[in-house]
Amino acid sequence: MSTPGPAPAVPGLTPVARVHVLLDPPLEVGRTPFGREREIPIVGGTVSGPGRDGEGLHGEVLRGGADRQRVLDDGTAVIDTRYTVALRSGHLLQLATAGYRTGPAPVLDALLAGEPVDPARYYFRVVVDARTADPDLAWLNTAVLVGSAVRTADAVAYDAYLVT
To answer: Which range is the signal sequence, renumbered to this chain (predicted)?
Structure first.
């Protein structure tokens, strides 16, 4: 029987950026065998933050992305976004998020209706996948990023953290 090696490092979180994504009204695809399907067009927004080592991470979210969302019977939204950011450096950054927005039924109903809701009343977390050819931000291509998000009537904002 082998003995366990050294204990793995306990991960930490380093703030990387605030992402603010502007949204058009949802396109309701309807109920499918997998849940209520919606597509929410992404029409703009901003990315701004310190980056990993203070090199900065700044850009504009481009029109054309979307959140292809599935809403489960209990109101939980399964998040699946894809969009592109034009960085100040002139390079592009592709972002994709996957996660969940869940909570008590009345809170989720209010969110789906576009009503303002205190983010402490629901759980909205995502894993962020980033891809870029920007040599100064190449670390993003192999980084594990997570986000804590909030939904408003016409936007989603999340703070992205590097898992260290």
So the answer is: none
Q: Give ∠ CA 144-150-152 in degrees, rounded to 5.
A: 140
Rg (CA), the chain: 17
CB 158 within 8 A of CB 17: no
Closest CA to 68 of 91, 89, 97: 97
Amino acid at 44: G
CATH of domain 13-163: 2.40.160.20
Threshold 0.90, pTM exceeds: yes
62 class by beta-carbon count within 10 Å (0-12 exposed, 13-18 middle, 19+ buried): middle
Residue 137: what are its φ and ψ, rounded to 5°? -120, 20
